[in-house]
Design goal:
Keywords: Signal
Shape: elongated
Distance between the termini: 51 Å
Length: 178
């Protein structure tokens, strides 16, 4: 009988320890989810990013060409979105540093173009190159990079596109993809 009580007591103690461990893991997962932007796009109006390079950028259609809006986009031949000239950058600052690993850039649609640009991700201390090259005939450039904390992205227009000296961005998204 004593043996039975000892087993029950040991089981109760281990069950209580497991509950504490579960609460700790659950809390840790919740923090990780928040740091990763709840696995959603952190460059949208809802997340309050800043276009800190706005003085060297151009936005078509008096603000409706801003690259973090949430509406569905029309495919206009002359739709420029947010754009900048050769040797300039588009800089998007996030409201906080997030752990991210994916960046999607929707480039001007309506015709076939190649774009030559460099994308940097920074945690405010050091810029890391996450893309350096030419995007051939793709409307959406999906850039996968190592998990890292990002406070801002900088898209440097090295050589424009095959039609003009500009880089035209219709929409941009950044998130952590599992």
């Amino acid at each position: 009988m004593l043996r039975y009580y000892v087993i029950v007591i040991l089981f109760a103690i281990s069950l209580n320890y497991s509950k504490k461990e579960f609460k700790f893991c659950s809390r840790q997962n919740k923090i990780k989810t928040q740091i990763r932007g709840n696995y959603k796009n952190v460059i949208s109006y809802d997340e309050s990013p800043l276009l800190t390079s706005r003085k060297q950028n151009y936005i078509q259609l008096s603000g409706s060409g801003i690259l973090f809006r949430n509406e569905i986009y029309g495919a206009y031949q002359n739709y420029l979105g947010t754009y900048c000239g050769k040797g300039k950058s588009i800089v998007i600052e996030l409201r906080q540093a997030f752990e991210l690993n994916t960046l999607k850039i929707m480039l001007r649609n309506g015709d076939v173009r190649t774009y030559d640009f460099i994308v940097y991700a920074s945690d405010s201390n050091k810029e890391t190159v996450i893309f350096d090259g030419i995007n051939y005939y793709n409307e959406v450039a999906k850039i996968k990079f190592q998990n890292q904390f990002v406070k801002y992205f900088r898209i440097f227009n090295r050589n424009g596109n095959s039609e003009t000296a500009n880089i035209n961005i219709i929409k941009i998204e950044a998130y952590f993809q599992l």
